Amino acid sequence: MTYHPKSDFMTIMIERGFLADCTDYQGLDEALSAGVVPAYIGFDATARSLHVGSLIQIMMLRWLQKTGGKPLTLMGGGTTKVGDPSFRADERPLLDDAAIQANIDGIQQVFAAYVDYNDSPTGALMLNNDEWLSDLKYIPFLRDIGRYFSVNRMLSFESVKSRLDREQSLSFLEFNYMILQAYDFLELNRRYGCLLQMGGSDQWGNIVNGIDLTRRVIDTEVFGLTSPLLTTADGRKMGKSADGAIWLNAEMCSPYQFWQFWRNTMDADVGRFLKLYTELPIEECERLGALAGSEINDAKIILANEVTTLLHGAEAAQAAEATSREVFEKGGVGDDLPTVTLTAADIGEGIANTALFVKAGLSPSGKEAKRLFASGGASINDEVVKEPRLMTPDEFAGDLKLSAGKKRHALVKIAG
């Protein structure tokens, strides 16, 4: 990357590691320097929450607004009905309108923590592509938009080609996805003057299609910018943990669990994650990332506090840190641990200790809990659990602290 940008936004994208590719570095940089640039990222409503894997894109929208741009957060109420085939081995299950709307309601909660929705020139807008996609008339759409798409070229895009190379079915419904996403860019330019689409690097083909369509239909130049698809230092996809996805909505992943995910960052990732997921100065990110030995743990706590504060607020971050210190340094319980509450009916005449670990979210299944026991990695009230057994009601006289390894803990409480 040899281009030296003039605009604050492009400078930040390059210096902090957000930029994988751009369709026209100089053209976009000049547009950003000339005035307010509306830019969008689309988020399909396939779950009730986005997870940490989407946080890099959300931070890009935040930096855009902080440097004088206008973020457009586009909910894929229409495209979710089709399903993005990009780098998937199979077709997504189709959701009905009610499920899609419920997912959108859940996802929208997160964005207000990162961007400011207001009526100013740089105020963010929350949009839904169902507004224009679901009212399209099929034959006119094919005549007006479909004629600009070459099937030969569509087949060459990696998102399609990879499925066909593996001889895995690609439905005609999914095949339309890239046309609809391209149409989103055209429509957002018409309605809101949108000049930039951003997304992960797996969206490059879809973004380029939208740029090409907008140029062909209304002879307007627009731009595309992608972020790298992040993996952790050990090769895992960003946003995944031993317990599955790390969701951004508090009801699906508590602030403590979210904080703990960042506190458990691998040493080699600390500096990079500080640049991407916090607003600390570059020099401070590099200083903290270069710490070694026990000092790197202090950097991880700063990372966890900064990221958690952005999403859940300073009080939640402080409570999570206090709980972590209580649990890890003092061997206590802490006030903010993930908690599962059982009733007397849940326990009945007894409940398997493996079931407790599953209910507490420390193990995905009873089978995995047994493996955890066999490895010596499980404990109840700091006593190692060696084998599965039935726990009787009198063992639930007080709260139980469950531990899976040294870093994952939960409480079991009895209602009433």
TrEMBL record:
- Enzyme class of the recorded protein, top EC level: ligase
Chief location category: cytoplasm
UniProt GO BP: tyrosyl-tRNA aminoacylation
Q: Which residues bind ATP?
A: 240
Q: Where is this motif: 'KMSKS' region?
A: 237-241
Q: Which CDD domains match?
A: TyrRS_core
Which positions does UniProt annotate for L-tyrosine binding? 40, 177, 181
Chain span(s) of sequence motif 'HIGH' region = 45-54
A Gene Ontology cellular-component term: cytosol
Q: What is its EC number?
A: 6.1.1.1
Q: Which domain of life is it from?
A: Bacteria
Name its cellular compartments.
Cytoplasm
One function term, GO molecular function aspect: ATP binding
Q: Which UniProt keywords apply?
A: Aminoacyl-tRNA synthetase, ATP-binding, Cytoplasm, Ligase, Nucleotide-binding, Protein biosynthesis, RNA-binding
Catalyzed chemical reaction(s): tRNA(Tyr) + L-tyrosine + ATP = L-tyrosyl-tRNA(Tyr) + AMP + diphosphate + H(+)
What InterPro entries does its record include? aa-tRNA-synth_Ic (IPR002305), Rossmann-like_a/b/a_fold (IPR014729), S4_RNA-bd_sf (IPR036986), Tyr-tRNA-ligase (IPR002307), Tyr-tRNA-ligase_bac-type (IPR024088), Tyr-tRNA-ligase_bac_1 (IPR024107)
Question: What's the family?
Answer: Belongs to the class-I aminoacyl-tRNA synthetase family. TyrS type 1 subfamily.
- By its UniProt entry, which HAMAP family does this protein fall under? Tyr_tRNA_synth_type1 (MF_02006)
Q: What does this protein do?
A: Catalyzes the attachment of tyrosine to tRNA(Tyr) in a two-step reaction: tyrosine is first activated by ATP to form Tyr-AMP and then transferred to the acceptor end of tRNA(Tyr).
Q: Quaternary structure per UniProt?
A: Homodimer.
Report the protein name in the record: Tyrosine--tRNA ligase
- This chain's source organism reads Roseovarius indicus
